[in-house]
Amino acid sequence: MRFRHPDGSTVHLAYCTNVHPAESLDGVLAQLRDHCEPVRRRLGRDRIGIGLWLARAAAHTLTTDPASLRALRTELDRRGLEVVTLNGFPYEGFGADEVKYRVYQPDWTRPERLAHTTDLARLLAALLPEDVGEGSVSTLPLAWRTSFDARAAATARTALITLAARLDALEELTGRSIRIGLEPEPGCTVETVADAVTALTDVPRHRIGVCLDTCHLATSFEDPRTALDALTTAGITVPKAQLSAALHAEHPHLPEVRAALGAFAEPRFLHQTRTRTAAGLRGTDDLPEALATPEAGHAPGPGPGPGLPDATPWRAHFHVPLHAPPAPPLGSTLPVLQETLALLVGGPHPLTRHLEVETYTWQALPADRRPRTRARLAEGIAAELTLARDLLTDLGLKELP
Known about the structure:
The protein is of the alpha/beta class. It has helices at about 25-45, 55-65, 65-80, 110-125, 150-175, 195-200, 215-220, 225-235, 255-260, 285-290, 335-345, 375-395, and strands at about 1-5, 10-15, 50, 80-85, 135-140, 175-180, 210-215, 240-245, 245-250, 275, 280-285, 315-320, 330, 355, 400. The strands form 2 sheets. It has an 8-stranded parallel barrel, surrounded by 6 helices. Helix 2 (about 55-65) crosses helix 3 (about 65-80) and helix 2 packs across helix 4.
């Protein structure tokens, strides 16, 4: 979906296909047929954007077989789909029964990550619509926080500098500008925008910026205006933003609230949980750890032991549907998304032109909230995009045909 900003530029809205992941190219083509086109039809649009997720195996097929790449481009056009952004965070296995910490491998200290991201950039340059000259790729925020020392930081920085040089060469060759966004996430080396500013020191900022995920921003209790002001001051761009909402519990000490949170503690994805206390931000790596009773003599979070202080609100990294927040006593951080979006595109000029709805946890929701059919999933995704569209038009952007 395309929107005209009051300054005359085009802002793109897509939804991310990691919600129905596939490892192979055949699986990606099936996604377009079984999920993406039905979402477009529900929206009544001739064309919608998708933030394509290409697992390593699918990307390898596309980079080594030009006919496959042409076939994908043809299939996108035939089904009324366009791609201006890729989700390069998960490398493979995002549809596994248990993802958890594996999603952070390989990290930016590994040559596989550089090679994969380079391939994604080259593929995106070939997939961009004819009238679009700029694409974006989101990627993991360097690494999970453990075992990341000064040597690892130097290795990751070198990889990003190498990537930037490759992207410069790609633009010279194709005329297409591809930019990369590190996606700050709780528990990672780059958890906050402040961490991103530090991590991107001496990295070419015309190519490498930040992918701002509004669920992650809210989970870490970051103030949207402070975060964006820090990026602007540092000269760091926002190649893309992901529109997502976190799980919010205002009174986590209450038994009924803890019971409701327990329904969201599931085995597939990591749900980092945070609370803001007088002593600063405290957290656990996963929701079950937050809900656990602290061991005798152990001060609740952060640390290896279970438990999280419950005198102040909790937020958990669980992407809940934008249009359907959890029932009381829980809620979502949709207001953080709304505030961030207003700052991103509500001013005289947009701070980003690529927006992506990224609720990948539909099938991880409590059993009574999961869509049981493809049609119900398409209905939910279309409802999220409709909400995002309404927020954009309320900010003065005009939806384009």
